[in-house]
Amino acid sequence: MEQAVWLDAAEQHVWRGFLRMNTRIYDELERDLRERNGVSLIEYGILAHLSEAPERRMRMRVLADSVIVSKSRLSHQVARLERGGYVRREHCDDDRRGLWAVLTDEGAELLRAAAPGHAAQVRSLMFDRLSAEQVDQLAAIIRALDTDRT
Predict the structure, then answer these.
(1) What distance in Å separates the CA atoms of residue 59 and residue 91, rounded to the nearest whole number?
(2) How many angstroms separate the CA atoms of 33 and 125, rounded?
């Protein structure tokens, strides 16, 4: 059995602070998007990623990786967006099992309506509280911790 190397008091303080901050920002962004636009933060991310994709469409499995959710959770969220007319699913011609998620005009309009308020919230909760130097430091820390980039 592996011997645990416990966090010291300073590391524990940083870790718990990170978790609190991450949860608080996520919850506030989630609440704001639901109240203003009737979508979750994940659904907003789906719309945003689709809007940036060629022909406003992505393979479902690629979209799941992009918004960092499981395929089953993505399927549930896309189904909700589909019921609202914001996204549609299309079968892939080259892969019978594969599906495309496609942003509809209604979805693009919802994103256009939600984006300014969301950007303002992100700025208020994060960037307005940091100096330019701190933003650069945070970017470097994120690069160092981003396990998908290694």
Answers:
(1) 10
(2) 14
Amino acid at residue number 18: F
Q: How far is Cα 77 from Cα 82, in angstroms, rounded to an integer?
A: 9
Strands (E), the chain: 57-59, 87-92, 95-103
How far apart are the C-alpha atoms of 61 and 100, rounded to whole Å?
9
For residues 23 and 52, give the distance between their C-alpha atoms in angstroms, rounded to a whole number.
26
pLDDT score recorded for residue 115: 98
Long-range (24+ apart) CB contacts under 8 A made by 83-92 are: 84/110, 86/47, 86/110, 87/46, 87/47, 87/50, 89/60, 90/57, 92/59
Please identify which residue in the block is written with the tokens 């969301």: 118
* Amino acid occupying residue 82: E
Helix (H) / strand (E) element for 94: namely none
Task: State residue 113's pLDDT score.
Answer: 98
The residue behind tokens 């602070």 is 17
pTM value is 0.89
Sheet with strand 57-59: strands edge to edge:
57-59, 95-103, 87-92
